[in-house]
Amino acid sequence: MKKIAWTLTSLVCLLAACSGNSSQGTEVPVTEPASPSQAPLESEHASEPVTLTFATYYLSDRMKTAVTKYESLHPDVTIRLQATPSYGKDLDEAAANREKFLTGANTAILAGKGPDLVELDILPMEAYANRHLLVNLQDMMSSDISFRAQDYFTNILDNARVNDGLYGMPLYFYLDGLLGNKSAIDKTGVPIDDSNWTWNDFIAAAKQLKQKGEIASALITEPSILLSEMTADNFTRLVKEKNGERAFDSDSFIELIHDVQAMIDDGLLFDMAADGGGRGSAATLNAKAYFNAWPIDSFESYLLNGFAEQTKLYTLPHPHELGAGGYFSTFGMVGINANSPHKQEAWQFLAFLMDDEAKSLTAADTNTNIGFPINKLAYDGQVEQLKEAGTIQSDVHPEAIVDTEKLDQLKGSLSEAVHWVRTPSKIDETIMNESKAYFSGQKSAEAVAKLVQSKIDLILNE
């Protein structure tokens, strides 16, 4: 559910920002493929004017402003934004534009060409990293004496790695968790220990809540969406590598299907589709439950969620072997092309986005549901702005007093998030689409798992 919420909210907000833009970039000159370790970090022509190309799918007004500001500070650097429109006159055109970006960027990068910098949010970053097509940004940070690791959420940087390297820099991140109806849960007297609970622990607690409390449902979701989310949360456990290829573990996936079915059988789920008539229906919006899968991607979503009067963020259930800690997703993931002739200049611009530009953001800026800045100092500044204002409101929520105690707790949750939710969007779509046949009674769990495994194996190794 959190992925769907992220997709819809970020799409709406970012498309609004992108509206009217078009792709204007020119193709980057072809260079011979080289591994990041072989390529020099310094430009061979540092004193000469440099043109950087930056390919992005979600081109916001803020990014255009950042480019203008950077160019004014560095007259010898020109940054050419290449943006495929993420909007369209209808969903079909928007989908076509998305495919255009995916195909164009993927083809260029795999051919050893492409832009100097690229937004990786919807691109196969792991595949690029495995082919040495992206710069390991850890090397850049280590060689940059001005980079202060303590100024950033290092728990995110440490856990947003691929093959022990940092190949994409997340400008923003957000929390994935369960938003709990704290007052209703406390009223039942059922103890909730979410420090390292599994989905079986969650089901056991949900049964007690239903038995002792007044609310019928434990969780608001949709079975196929919940299964997709549980798969994302367990992705590192579900994908096995053998002989250089990655394979999806269908047996473990069947276990997740049975976990969701158990919740349905026990009446623990409020099914948005079957019971509520859809996500935006009045029945769903007014549904009561003890938990709701909820992305904390802005101060607004944390302080003004509308789910319950008193809420608490709980860690997502997960296998014990993954260890304690919360879940996070990244946004604005920017990588540097390993074949760029201007890696050092590209890094300097990326560092600017992480530092100077991040600090120029206000608390109001973060209500666009893109997440919290990776820069810890920028985040602290936004918190202070909120506390000084004393109130917060949004287009859909009336003005409310800022709960400073709850706000202080948020930084702890952000700092303790260590599990990266990073399933490719094609896998999400595959699971949601194919699992509907099981939940509607048309196919067995084994048949669905076999089909899902076949499709996901192709995605993982394409």
Break the fold down into its secondary structure elements and pairings.
Elements: H1 2-18, E1 50-56, H2 61-73, E2 77-83, H3 91-110, E3 117-119, H4 125-130, H5 137-143, H6 154-159, E4 169-181, H7 182-188, H8 199-212, E5 217-221, H9 223-233, H10 235-238, E6 239-242, E7 245-248, H11 250-265, E8 269-271, H12 282-285, E9 289-296, H13 299-303, E10 311-314, E11 326-336, H14 343-354, H15 356-359, E12 372-373, H16 376-389, E13 391-392, E14 400-401, H17 404-415, E15 417-420, H18 425-439, H19 445-460
Parallel strand pairs: 1-2, 1-3, 5-8, 5-9, 11-15
Antiparallel strand pairs: 3-11, 4-9, 4-10, 4-11, 4-12, 6-7, 13-14
Helix pairs in contact: 9-11, 9-18, 11-19, 18-19
InterPro entries: Bact_solute-bd_prot1 (IPR050490), SBP (IPR006059)
Region (Disordered): 21-45
Keywords: Signal
Number of DSSP-assigned strands = 15
CATH fold node name of the largest domain: D-Maltodextrin-Binding Protein, domain 2
Count of helix runs:
19
Task: For the record, give the distance between the C-alpha atoms at the N and C termini, rounded to a whole number.
Answer: 26 Å
Give the second-level CATH assignment, the architecture of the largest domain.
3-Layer(aba) Sandwich
User: In percent, how helical is the residue content?
Assistant: 40-55%
Low-pLDDT sequence parts: 1-45
CATH uppermost class of the largest domain: Alpha Beta
The average pLDDT score comes to: 83
Shape: globular
Question: What is the total number of structural domains?
Answer: 2
What would you report as the Rg, rounded to the nearest angstrom? 23 Å
CATH superfamily of the largest domain: Periplasmic binding protein-like II
Main sheet specs: 11 strands, mixed
Based on secondary structure, the structural category is alpha/beta
Region (Disordered): 21-45
Protein name: Extracellular solute-binding protein
InterPro entries: Bact_solute-bd_prot1 (IPR050490), SBP (IPR006059)
Signal peptide: 1-24
